[in-house]
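Support request from a user on the community tier.

User writes: "When I paste my structure tokens into the form, the page sometimes reloads and wipes my input. The last time it worked, I copied everything first. Here is what I submitted, just in case something in the input itself triggers the reload:"
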């Protein structure tokens, strides 16, 4: 991926599970729904457009286009309709059932203050996703980090 060093967000985490298990957690919605979104139209497959739904946010839906999948190495998606909004997962096998996952989001645009807010929000969001993944895969605990970031009680008028 060609990253513009001024307009991307990144989060990374060590997950103490084999790379195949960590990779599967991101392509298989039966697992991903335990730590991120609540529904998906199907499993990630290269060339397909998939709907991800966050029911806790009023059924907020994002359509992602899967640009490439390299088993146990990388996933690249286009996030929504913006062709520049690209998210990439990189999986590194550290041996001894340890996987280092890096998520990079490129395509942040706008004025400087808008870009700073997007970088902050995307970095926070993917950090919560990785922390939720870690808790789920390593300890079989669903922390509900994504849902609890914006509790409905704080958003109701």
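"...and here is what came back when it finally went through:"
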């Amino acid at each position: 991926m060609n990253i513009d060093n001024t307009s991307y967000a990144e989060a990374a985490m060590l997950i103490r599970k084999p790379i195949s298990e960590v990779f599967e957690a991101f392509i298989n919605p039966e697992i991903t729904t335990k730590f991120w979104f609540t529904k998906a139209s199907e499993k990630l497959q290269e060339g397909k457009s998939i709907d991800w739904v966050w029911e806790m946010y009023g059924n907020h839906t994002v359509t992602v286009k899967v640009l490439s999948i390299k088993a146990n190495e990388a996933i690249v998606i286009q996030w929504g309709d913006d062709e520049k909004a690209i998210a990439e997962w990189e999986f590194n096998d550290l041996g001894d059932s340890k996987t280092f996952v890096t998520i990079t989001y490129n395509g942040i645009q706008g004025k400087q203050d808008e870009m700073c807010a997007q970088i902050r929000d995307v970095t926070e969001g993917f950090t919560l996703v990785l922390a939720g993944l870690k808790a789920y895969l390593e300890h079989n605990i669903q922390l509900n980090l994504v849902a609890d970031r914006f509790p409905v009680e704080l958003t109701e008028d």
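Agent notes: The reload is a front-end session timeout and is unrelated to the input. The chain has a mean pLDDT of 94. The radius of gyration is 15 Å. Escalated to web team.
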